[in-house]
Design goal:
By secondary structure, the protein is an alpha/beta fold. Helix content is about 25%, strand content about 25%. The chain has helices spanning about 45-50, 90-95, 125, 130-140, 170-180, 195-200, 215-225, 240-250, 285-290, 295-300, 320-330, and strands spanning about 5-10, 20, 30-40, 60, 65-75, 85-90, 105-110, 115, 160-165, 185-190, 205-210, 225-235, 255-260, 270-275, 310-315, 335-339.
């Protein structure tokens, strides 16, 4: 095995990352070591670097989305073998251990947070999946959130229930639409008009302009006569009160799962909870999505890696450039660095 190298953040708010040697990690029980071929950038990488709001032990390594080849397997691993192409969610923000971070040549991932990559999917495409998929799955399927039934391939028969996903073209939204449809739910979503066709292609039945002054009324009209499965708010801020209003005034599940901390008081009888996108590692949802659903769905093409990758460049030296670009905002694309 070649020696490991990482893009280190040496102290809180340090910029740029420093590319230098890192330990060669050993996978533990139910873990595999990936030799990374592609990694993706998420908003949390940029905000943690620039604002240092998340408690970490410095120096450390950031990043969660990796795709590569298994180079070592830990005890009790039977699902993967050395040489397998795998996409995984690095759990550095759950464990705070640098071996679980993405911005390096080798990353340790848990087997219940990893999926085989079929030959019809490239490493760059696969790398866009993990955190967006995990966050969506946490909000949709965990018992303390929307508690929807898990997705299957082929898709489950229709439940007759309709889910509101606010921000369908976001990374979380792009994954959530596909997961919810595979679980048997109708999806109504919001996006900017330029992304209407994109979210419909992912499986949304109807889409509304989130900037429209009548978006709340329009959504309420759609949900009239339907049974609501609740709402997944993939944006937060001004979107949250609208999601609450639509869910509260609709028949069905009275719950909003949101990607941002909750700053509003919901009406009596309505639940709202902030998603942290790694908690599925500890329950049936991790296995249900990464082991039971994704490998088959990626192979058949019923689940597509989304948003599409936008490759910033090659090598760990390009990670800082990609994180800086993330800070400027990206729409319906996910920034990727290849190694």
């Amino acid at each position: 095995m070649a020696s490991n190298t990482a893009a280190w953040i040496t102290s809180p708010k340090a910029h740029p990352f420093e590319v230098k040697p890192a330990p060669t990690w050993t996978p533990g029980e139910n873990e595999v070591l990936l030799e990374n071929h592609a990694l993706a950038i998420n908003p949390i990488d940029e905000t943690v670097q620039t604002r240092a709001w998340f408690p970490l032990n410095y120096p450390t390594i950031l990043g969660q989305d990796v795709a590569g080849v298994v180079s070592a397997i830990g005890p009790n691993v039977t699902r993967f073998k050395i040489g397998d192409r795998v996409v995984g969610h690095g759990l550095v923000f759950a464990t705070t251990r640098p071996q679980h971070a993405a911005f390096q040549a080798y990353t340790v991932v848990q087997t219940n947070m990893a999926s085989e990559i079929p030959n019809n999917v490239t490493f760059e495409q696969a790398a866009v999946i993990p955190l967006g998929c995990s966050t969506a799955a946490c909000g949709l399927f965990q018992e303390e959130f929307l508690n929807l039934q898990l997705p299957t391939e082929p898709k489950r028969k229709d439940t007759g229930k309709t889910l509101l996903i606010w921000g369908g073209a976001s990374s979380v939204g792009s994954n959530a639409i596909q997961l919810a449809v595979a679980a048997g739910y109708e999806v109504v979503t919001t996006a900017s008009p330029k992304n209407f066709e994109y979210v419909k292609k992912l499986g949304a039945s109807q889409v509304f302009d989130y900037k429209s002054p009548t978006v709340g009324e329009d959504l309420l009209a759609v949900f009239k006569g339907k049974t609501s499965a609740g709402a997944l708010d993939c944006i937060g801020f001004a979107a949250t009160p609208v999601c609450i209003d639509v869910v509260h005034k609709s028949a069905g599940v009275q719950f909003v799962a949101t990607v941002k901390p909750v700053s509003v008081t919901p009406p009596e009888g309505l639940g709202i909870k902030h998603i942290f996108g790694t908690t599925l590692k500890d329950n049936k949802v991790g296995k249900g999505v990464y082991e039971d659903f994704l490998p088959k769905a990626l192979k058949t093409g019923t689940f597509v890696p989304a948003p599409e990758p936008l490759v910033v460049g090659k090598g760990l030296e390009k990670v800082q450039e990609a994180v800086d670009l993330m800070g400027k905002g990206v729409s319906a694309k996910k920034l990727v660095v290849v190694l």
